[in-house]
């Protein structure tokens, strides 16, 4: 297994950790750690794509990297009690 493959798998582990911790209630969407795990996952998978490019995966990861901070910011400025 190559270094880019390992880096990409660490990115997948970051995604799955964020999702799993969210589902079991340890993290919340508003938690910075959730956003950081998602951003880290996208960055590491994008790195691995430099060595074995896949357009669909690249578009997905790039979008994830853009949407993650937007979602985090939105969750932080949402007023308490708002739907």
- What is the first-to-last residue Cα distance? 46 Å
Rg measurement, Å: 14 Å
Determine the number of helices (DSSP H or I, runs of at least 4 residues): 3
Element order: H for helix, E for strand: HHH
- Determine the fraction of residues in helical runs and give it as a percent range: over 70%
> Structural class, judged by helices and strands?
mainly alpha
Count of individual beta strands:
0
Could you describe the largest sheet, including whether it forms a barrel?
Answer: none
Look at the structure and give the mean pLDDT.
93
Percent in strands: under 5%
Shape: globular
Work out the count of structural domains: 1
Uncertain spans? none
Describe this structure in words.
The protein is mainly alpha-helical. It has one domain (3-77). The protein contains three helices and no strands. The radius of gyration is 14 Å and the shape is globular. The termini are far apart. The relative contact order is 0.16. The mean pLDDT is 93.
């Amino acid at each position: 297994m190559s270094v880019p493959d390992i880096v990409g798998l660490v990115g997948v582990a970051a995604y799955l950790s964020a999702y799993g911790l969210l589902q079991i209630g340890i993290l919340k969407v508003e938690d910075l750690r959730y956003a950081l795990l998602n951003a880290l996952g996208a960055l590491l998978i994008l790195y691995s794509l430099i060595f074995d490019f896949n357009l669909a995966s690249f578009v997905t990861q790039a979008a994830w990297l853009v949407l993650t901070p937007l979602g985090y910011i939105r969750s932080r400025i949402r007023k308490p009690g708002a739907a």
